[in-house]
Design brief:
- By secondary structure, this protein is of the alpha/beta class.
- The protein has a single domain, classed as Rossmann fold (3-Layer(aba) Sandwich), CATH 3.40.50.
- The protein has nine helices and eleven strands.
- Strands 3, 4, 5, 6, 7, 8, 9, 10 and 11 form a nine-stranded mixed beta sheet that branches. It has a two-stranded antiparallel ribbon with strand order 1-2.
- The N terminus is likely disordered.
């Protein structure tokens, strides 16, 4: 479907809980509207049409190149190793918070690309851990000084989308999630980021857009018809900004597939709340500078 008008998700949309059904029109305006330079947050989108081959296999070499290009751009460095050295110190104990949801897990190729660069930054392999559901009991995460947050972008029954903010839900006991974090479309999720095990430790956030799930209904719903081989990575320091851009992308993918934006079980209200209540990052797309690198055919945003 051709998109003749460019739209943004405004704070009002998030507040009303209708970010997926009532998008404010900014006809003829670019993705970034005028804002004070110091308020803009940079988010890097990298895509490569060779990231997934015709058989559906992820190319680890291409993924490494995409990660290197994105992190180098984010950090303003030509050499990816130097870029990582600005994120990670040799003395750091590094936890890579992944996601193991069976239908769309964090690709191992991306995990290993991150491990390579963390090691290149001088961290011994014994001080690097990768985990998801076991982070509370994992010795690396319990003593970590640095975290890398990486997961695929997808829709989610309770929170509207599964993104960077929600990926830290495993840092609280599972019995607490429905009690304290599922209310109002999971609006309290960002409060987890203030817990001692994670507070101030996140050096980098990565949303894998190699494959995205742009539509689902009900808990744990998965349908391959609603999975897009987008062949991209979204990289940044601000988890809220990444999720705001990700939410917009999923909306545009639904519109392209269905010819309209179909509502989800819950809107992604937690993204706005993470900004306005918890001050975790920026949710207003007008304050986000999206830097696009590589192959952009069908990028939508």
């Amino acid at each position: 479907m051709r998109m003749d008008k460019k739209r943004i998700i405004t704070r009002r949309d998030f507040l009303r809980g209708t970010a997926y059904t009532a998008i404010a029109l900014t006809t003829g305006q670019p993705f970034i509207e005028k804002a004070r330079v110091e308020e803009k947050v940079r988010v890097i989108l990298v895509r490569d049409e060779k990231a997934i081959d015709s058989m559906g296999n992820i190319n680890p070499r291409v993924v490494q190149q995409m990660l290197d290009r994105g992190v180098s751009e984010l950090m303003g460095e030509k050499d990816p190793v130097q870029a990582w050295k600005r994120l990670i110190k040799p003395s750091d104990i590094v936890g890579i918070k992944s996601n193991v949801w069976a239908y769309l897990p964090t690709p191992e190729e991306l995990e290993q690309a991150i491990v390579k660069r963390v090691r290149d930054a001088g961290v011994p392999r014994k001080n690097i851990g990768i985990d998801d559901r076991g982070v509370l009991n994992h010795p690396i995460f319990k003593s970590s000084t640095a975290l890398i947050n990486v997961r695929p972008l997808r829709t989610h029954h309770w929170s509207g989308i599964g993104g960077c903010i929600k990926n830290y839900c495993m840092f609280v006991p599972s019995y607490q999630l429905p009690l304290y974090y599922h209310s109002d479309a999971c609006s309290p999720l960002a409060s987890i980021w203030s817990k001692p095990i994670v507070k101030g430790k996140t050096r980098l956030n990565i949303l894998s857009l190699l494959r995205t799930q742009f539509y689902s209904r009900g808990p744990h719903h998965f349908d391959r018809r609603f999975v897009s081989e987008y062949k991209g990575l979204l990289i940044g320091r601000d988890p809220v900004a990444l999720d705001a851009v990700g939410a917009r992308l999923l909306q545009l993918q639904r519109t392209a597939y269905f010819g309209e934006d179909r509502p989800l079980d819950n809107p992604p209200t937690h993204i706005y709340v993470a900004d306005e209540k918890y001050k975790l990052g920026v949710s207003d797309l007008r304050r986000i500078e999206l830097v696009k690198l590589g192959w952009m055919e069908g990028s939508l945003i």
